[in-house]
Amino acid sequence: MIFNLYFFVFISYILHNICVLAEQFPRSEKNGQELLLCRKCGADVADSYYLFSKPSPGARKTEKQNLFGQQNVTVQTLVNPFGIKFEVVTAEKARCDNIGPNQGADSWFPGYSWRICACPHCGQHLGWTFEKTDSIVEKQSSENIKTFHGLILRNILGENFTDSLIMMPKMYKM
Predict the structure, then answer these.
(1) Closest Cα to residue 36, out of 96, 87, 98?
(2) Which residues constitute the signal peptide according to the record (predicted)?
(3) Please, what are the averages of pLDDT over each run of 10 residues along the chain (174 residues)?
(4) To bridge 88 with a disulfide, which of 5, 114, 126, 150 should be the other Cys (CB 3.0-4.6 Å)?
(5) What is the pTM (predicted TM-score) of this model?
(6) Which fold has domain 2-172?
């Protein structure tokens, strides 16, 4: 009985967030195929339109997957100095609160410093924001990307996936 109550509250909360997001971002104005949401609270954190491939020389594994309405999205398995593995996708733009000062040590992307990227709504760790550092090596590079985000796959989900979890009663279907 308690489980049903928690489930009802959870679904109500998700539906509320989806309705709020739908009002803010009508489908006709969205750039990409699908919005990426914080897995913890359902807040909109990115648009799949901004996913791009930014290879890391430190990736343990790199593969292409069909995710978030996009084909051949690069998914990299990155391991931090503590041995924790993360499956990460990279995005040019994301909504997140950057926590702490830029860190140059142990960056998966040479020439970029990093900060933790947290959900602006609930504070969940979504990944990292990478910012280009001023170094001689990078000045020789032709890349123009100054800032991008590495988003942890297990901490985000696509809006279409959440839509598939919610069943509408037949009387409301058109």
Answers:
(1) 96
(2) 1-22
(3) 54 55 46 85 94 94 92 94 96 95 94 96 96 66 80 93 63 59
(4) 150
(5) 0.73
(6) 2.170.150
